[in-house]
Amino acid sequence: MRRAxxxxxxxxxxxxxxxxxxxxxxxxxxxxxxxxxxxxIGLIFAAVYSxxxxxxxxxxxxxxxxxxxxxxxxxxxxxxxxxxxxxxDAITKDLTVFPLIRSYVTEIVPPDTLRIHITERAPVGSxxxxxxxxxxxxxxxxxxxxxxxxxxxxxxxxxxGDLTGPAFSSMVAVLLAxxxxxxxxxxxxxxxxQDDVALVLTGVGQGVTWGSADDSVRKAxxxxxxxxxxxxxxxGVFDVSAPGNGIFRxx
Length: 251
Hints:
alpha/beta, Ubiquitin-like (UB roll), 3 domains, cell division, POTRA_FtsQ_type
C-alpha cells in the first residue's frame, strides 16, 4: 500500500511538472510574439515618422516646354514631410497651375527623394484670337499665348474660334494623321464644317482639298505620294477628298 501511495505521489508530481511546463512554454510564446509585434510596430512608426525618411530632394523629368525648376518650386511645400505621409492631393493641386501638363506619375525613392515624371500636352496648332496667337493641343486646351505667330505649328482657322465643335475636331484628326514630313509643310488649316477641311502648304501656293476626316490615314498616304510626284515649284491644289482617286490640279 505504501509503495502504491509513493508511486501515485510520484505520478502526480510528474503531471504537475508537465502541466506547468506547458504553461511556461505558452507564456514564453506569448512573450516572444508580443516582442515581435512591438518590434514591427516600432519599425512602422520609424518608417512613417522618422526624419531619416523625410523628403529632401524633388526631381522632375519629361519636360521640354515646362521649366522643371518651376515644378519643383510648386511642390516644395512637401519638403521635410516623411515619405509615407506625402500629401498627393496637395501635389495634384500644386501642379494644376501648369496647363502644359497632360499627366504625371510620382515615384518615391527612399530614403529621401520624390521623382515626378511628367507627360506634356502636345501642341497641334495655333488659333488667332484677336491680336493674340494661342497654341492649343488636340483637346483645345490653350498651352501658350503670343503676340507673334508661333513657329513650328500650323494656323487653325476655326469657325468663331470654337475649339469644341466638329470642325475643330476634324482639323485635329487630319493633322494627327499626317506623317511628320508632310505635317511640317502645312502652313494653315481651314474648315467651316466637319466635312470641308482644307490645307494650305508652305512655299509657292499649293493647297489641299481634304474633305471630311474620314479615311484620313489613306488620304495622308495619298497626299504624301502626290507631293512626291509633283514639281514643288508648281502652284495648284491636291485633291484627296476621294482617297481612291487623288489628283493635283495646277493653277
